[in-house]
Write a structure and sequence with these properties.
Radius of gyration: 17 Å
Structural class: alpha+beta
Helix content: 25-40%
Number of helices: 6
Order of helices and strands: EHEEHEEEHHHHEEEEEEEE
Length: 263
């Protein structure tokens, strides 16, 4: 994928609106093609945590002309906006979005993941084979051909399985991050933790910025526009946890052992 964004806010701001603006800014930056060499961003999607579940939507290129160039609007985001006008998502204040691919969902639709960069094909091949061999996990994603959408789907299923054992999204992402290889950044949400967004990075930037009672995450700080007064880059062995608690949003970055290293 060409870029990812995440958001958690406590001031009543719609996560959907913030995510769409972030994806639009990523498109205007003219980010380079994905690591798979599949060309510029051709699709976009968002997932919002709301009402005990996840609402997801995505769209492809806005027309036969293909993706827009640097400085111009992204047809993929325009197509996504059209889809959201036809089928609005539930209101929510936490969510994730991706440009250049669609969000990956686990088989139950309880976990969603967006990826930037590329996970090592060998690591994912092993994960796909493992998923095929487990009852109830032989869905379309596990059997799909390799690619950004399939990759995100496999990672979502791995996170879901880890969560079923440890019961915490941040620990589930930490465990999955530990067995994957490649140059990527990931953001994840889970319907069982609707006020939480978790991210991790390995060779692809993941920047966290806090301002005005909200926390934003992105593979490029340019996705925020103005207003991020505090920011930090997540390093390769770290995981960022962002959690909305009543009228405030807290965040922390931990290392591979769960030790807090920021803020």
């Amino acid at each position: 994928m060409c870029g990812i964004v995440g958001y958690a806010g406590a001031g009543g701001q719609s996560a959907e609106d913030v995510l769409l603006r972030g994806l639009e800014r990523l498109g205007r930056l003219g980010e380079p093609v994905g690591a798979e060499g599949l060309g510029p961003a051709c699709s976009a999607g968002v997932v919002v945590s709301a009402d005990g579940g996840l609402g997801a939507a995505w769209g492809g290129p806005g027309g036969p002309g293909g993706p827009g160039g640097p400085g111009g609007p992204s047809p993929a985001v325009e197509r996504l906006r059209e889809e959201l006008e036809r089928r609005p998502l539930p209101a929510g204040m936490c969510g994730i979005g991706g440009l250049g691919g669609v969000p990956g969902l686990d088989g139950a639709g309880r976990v969603a993941v967006v990826l930037a960069g590329a996970v090592d094909a060998g690591a994912l091949a092993g994960a796909r084979e493992e998923l095929r061999g487990r009852a109830g996990t032989v869905g379309a994603v596990a059997g799909a051909a390799a690619g950004p959408a399939a990759d995100a789907g496999v990672v979502a299923r791995l996170v879901a399985e880890a969560f079923s054992s440890c019961g915490e999204l941040v620990e589930a992402v930490r465990q999955v991050r530990g067995v994957l290889a490649g140059g990527f950044a990931v953001l994840a949400v889970h319907a069982d933790e609707p006020d939480t967004v978790v991210g991790a990075a390995a060779g692809v930037p993941l920047v966290v910025g806090a301002a005005d009672g909200a926390v934003r995450m992105a593979s490029d700080a340019g996705a925020w526009g103005d207003g991020a007064v505090e920011s930090v880059v997540v390093k390769g062995d770290q995981v960022v946890l962002v959690r909305r608690e009543f009228d405030e949003v807290r965040w922390e970055i931990t290392d591979g052992w769960g030790v807090v290293v920021a803020p």
